[in-house]
Specification:
CATH topology: Alpha-Beta Plaits
Radius of gyration: 14 Å
Number of helices: 4
Structural class: alpha+beta
Number of domains: 1
CATH class: Alpha Beta
Bound molecules: iron/sulfur cluster
């Protein structure tokens, strides 16, 4: 993760309960800003600057392992929005509204 020169601020950001996470990767594959990754077979926040804190990934988690917490974090990097592939973004967003169909794919 690159260092930011901006001061940490208190804001809403995703958190992962590793005890509940089964490492299915759905949250990683559905995060519009690619803020999550799998690390040691558990979801992990790759870069807190690109987590928008909306928690849309929560809808796709079959284990309720994701939640939003308020804590000190680096400010959201709004520049990430210019780097997002729009079609990829829409495809990922659509996953948030189909949690049941995602479960049925298993
Ligand atoms: S969707 Fe839930 S269970 Fe699957 S990797 Fe993400 S946090 Fe873990």
């Amino acid at each position: 993760m690159k260092k930011s020169t901006k001061m940490p601020m208190k804001r809403m950001i995703i958190a992962i309960n590793e005890d509940l996470c089964v490492g299915c990767g759905r949250c990683v594959n559905s995060c519009p800003t690619n803020a999550l990754e799998l690390r040691n077979e558990k979801a992990a926040l790759k870069d807190e600057r690109i987590c928008d804190g909306f928690g849309s990934c929560i809808a796709v988690c079959p284990e309720n392992a994701l939640y939003i917490e308020e804590r000190e974090a680096e400010p959201f990097d709004w520049d990430i929005l210019a780097k997002i592939d729009f079609e990829d973004f829409i495809e990922k967003l659509s996953l948030h509204y189909k949690p049941q169909s995602i479960k049925e794919e298993d």
